[in-house]
Amino acid sequence: MCISKETYNQVVKFRDDRDWKQFHNPKDLAISISLEASELLEVFQWSGEDVSGEGKMEKIREELADVVNYCILMADACNLDLDEIVQAKIARNNEKYPVEKSRGKSDKYDLL
Known about the structure:
Layout: H1 5-17, H2 26-42, H3 57-77, H4 82-96, H5 99-102
Protein backbone atom coordinates (compact mmCIF):
# COMPACT_ATOMS: atom_id res chain seq x y z
CA MET A 1 0.00 0.00 0.00
CA CYS A 2 1.08 3.55 -0.56
CA ILE A 3 0.15 6.83 1.04
CA SER A 4 -2.64 8.56 -0.82
CA LYS A 5 -2.53 12.26 -1.59
CA GLU A 6 -5.54 12.58 0.74
CA THR A 7 -3.62 11.06 3.65
CA TYR A 8 -0.57 13.19 2.89
CA ASN A 9 -2.77 16.29 2.87
CA GLN A 10 -4.44 15.29 6.14
CA VAL A 11 -1.06 15.04 7.88
CA VAL A 12 -0.06 18.48 6.59
CA LYS A 13 -3.48 19.95 7.48
CA PHE A 14 -3.21 18.56 11.03
CA ARG A 15 0.09 20.42 11.37
CA ASP A 16 -1.18 23.60 9.74
CA ASP A 17 -4.40 23.70 11.80
CA ARG A 18 -2.22 23.84 14.91
CA ASP A 19 0.28 26.34 13.45
CA TRP A 20 3.15 23.92 14.06
CA LYS A 21 4.92 24.42 10.72
CA GLN A 22 7.04 27.10 12.40
CA PHE A 23 8.58 24.35 14.57
CA HIS A 24 9.05 21.82 11.76
CA ASN A 25 12.47 22.56 10.34
CA PRO A 26 14.46 19.74 8.71
CA LYS A 27 16.79 19.30 11.71
CA ASP A 28 14.00 18.92 14.24
CA LEU A 29 11.97 16.69 11.92
CA ALA A 30 15.00 14.44 11.39
CA ILE A 31 15.37 14.20 15.17
CA SER A 32 11.67 13.38 15.49
CA ILE A 33 11.92 10.64 12.85
CA SER A 34 14.83 9.10 14.74
CA LEU A 35 13.04 9.32 18.09
CA GLU A 36 9.87 7.73 16.75
CA ALA A 37 11.90 5.02 15.00
CA SER A 38 13.53 4.31 18.37
CA GLU A 39 10.09 3.96 19.93
CA LEU A 40 9.22 1.45 17.20
CA LEU A 41 12.44 -0.42 17.95
CA GLU A 42 11.59 -0.41 21.65
CA VAL A 43 8.61 -2.67 20.88
CA PHE A 44 11.14 -5.43 20.16
CA GLN A 45 13.50 -4.71 23.06
CA TRP A 46 14.05 -7.79 25.23
CA SER A 47 11.78 -9.84 22.99
CA GLY A 48 14.23 -12.74 22.65
CA GLU A 49 13.13 -15.06 19.89
CA ASP A 50 10.07 -12.95 18.97
CA VAL A 51 11.19 -11.26 15.78
CA SER A 52 7.68 -10.79 14.35
CA GLY A 53 6.17 -8.62 17.09
CA GLU A 54 3.39 -11.10 17.71
CA GLY A 55 0.89 -9.66 20.15
CA LYS A 56 2.35 -6.17 19.78
CA MET A 57 0.80 -5.15 16.49
CA GLU A 58 -1.23 -2.24 17.89
CA LYS A 59 1.92 -0.61 19.33
CA ILE A 60 3.81 -1.32 16.09
CA ARG A 61 1.00 0.32 14.08
CA GLU A 62 1.03 3.39 16.34
CA GLU A 63 4.81 3.90 16.26
CA LEU A 64 5.11 3.18 12.54
CA ALA A 65 2.39 5.77 11.87
CA ASP A 66 4.40 8.32 13.88
CA VAL A 67 7.51 7.59 11.79
CA VAL A 68 5.57 7.90 8.53
CA ASN A 69 3.84 11.11 9.64
CA TYR A 70 7.18 12.73 10.43
CA CYS A 71 8.59 11.52 7.10
CA ILE A 72 5.68 13.20 5.33
CA LEU A 73 6.33 16.41 7.24
CA MET A 74 10.07 16.22 6.45
CA ALA A 75 9.32 15.80 2.75
CA ASP A 76 6.97 18.77 2.93
CA ALA A 77 9.54 20.93 4.77
CA CYS A 78 12.20 20.08 2.18
CA ASN A 79 9.80 20.34 -0.77
CA LEU A 80 10.52 16.75 -1.80
CA ASP A 81 8.16 14.41 -3.62
CA LEU A 82 8.14 11.15 -1.64
CA ASP A 83 7.22 9.02 -4.64
CA GLU A 84 9.99 10.56 -6.72
CA ILE A 85 12.72 10.15 -4.10
CA VAL A 86 11.71 6.57 -3.26
CA GLN A 87 11.66 5.62 -6.96
CA ALA A 88 15.12 7.18 -7.40
CA LYS A 89 16.42 5.24 -4.38
CA ILE A 90 14.99 1.98 -5.75
CA ALA A 91 16.82 2.63 -9.03
CA ARG A 92 20.11 3.26 -7.19
CA ASN A 93 19.63 0.17 -5.03
CA ASN A 94 18.98 -1.94 -8.13
CA GLU A 95 22.40 -0.87 -9.39
CA LYS A 96 24.12 -1.43 -6.03
CA TYR A 97 22.46 -4.79 -5.37
CA PRO A 98 22.06 -6.69 -8.65
CA VAL A 99 19.77 -9.68 -8.20
CA GLU A 100 22.32 -12.14 -9.53
CA LYS A 101 24.85 -11.10 -6.87
CA SER A 102 22.63 -10.36 -3.91
CA ARG A 103 19.65 -12.73 -3.96
CA GLY A 104 19.40 -14.45 -0.58
CA LYS A 105 22.53 -12.76 0.78
CA SER A 106 22.85 -10.22 3.57
CA ASP A 107 26.42 -9.16 2.76
CA LYS A 108 27.06 -5.44 2.41
CA TYR A 109 26.97 -4.39 -1.23
CA ASP A 110 30.70 -3.59 -1.41
CA LEU A 111 31.47 -7.14 -0.27
CA LEU A 112 29.39 -8.81 -3.02
